[in-house]
Amino acid sequence: MGSRQRAVTEKGFADQLNIETPEQVDLRFPVAGIGSRFVALLIDHGIQIGVYVLVGIAIAIFSSGGTGTRGSKAAGELDTLTKWFIAAIIFFNFLLIWGYFTLFEAFWHGQTPGKRVMKLRVIKDSGRQITLFEAMARNLLRVVDSLPSLYLAGVITMLCNRKNKRLGDFAAGTLVVHELPTDDRSVDTFVSAENYFAPRDQPRQESALPADAVARLDTGDLHVIETFFARALDLDLPTRAAMAEKIAARMAAKMQTSAPEGNPERLLEQLARAMRGTGRRF
What is the DSSP letter of 180? Predict the structure, then answer.
């Protein structure tokens, strides 16, 4: 079952995207506007320029110590070094311009430093976290979006659709949203919802799961659990708690057993570990 989307107008934001997940939980993402994205881009470009300046200073210092040649052999060695230097500059330029956005978005949960400052995040159209593939696709088209200058093509494209997508977003199936508000009580990846089910100082208790019950689950169930944990940090605590409880109840029903009391995320973690440890191919 795929995710269903609809964009609605919400006070404080131009548009808000509602995504109904396969777990039948309605997620709401305020779509980022052109202004906040432009400021985030300025911050990122400022960081890139700063790196260029530092590298330029380092090159100038290094070059000043290598002036003067001694004979044709030294000149030949210098010519070879010059070629390698030019190649390194080209690679560095490509890595800084394209790799900066791609690597940050792929491995920093859809954010660059500029997006983090502006509390923006790139996600898939389904509401899930983007992968390296989507980050590569959307940023390879960044050069097209920037044509003829000042991201004019990208801005025109964003103005023509309700989700403020540029061409790279259409190609990769992504969109940029404002981060959902989170509770200051959250702790780590799998503990945030603990506040809704048990006191923080209560020791974690795990009960053994019957092997025959776990055997009733399949690849699709493991995928649902892993998708939930991949998306968990992007959810506000009430939504995350409700989703965990609903998935845990679904798994318990399929295992033909009752869900244990306490934080349902603990059950989902145990199930994921148990399914991975059975030796079956998922």
Answer: P
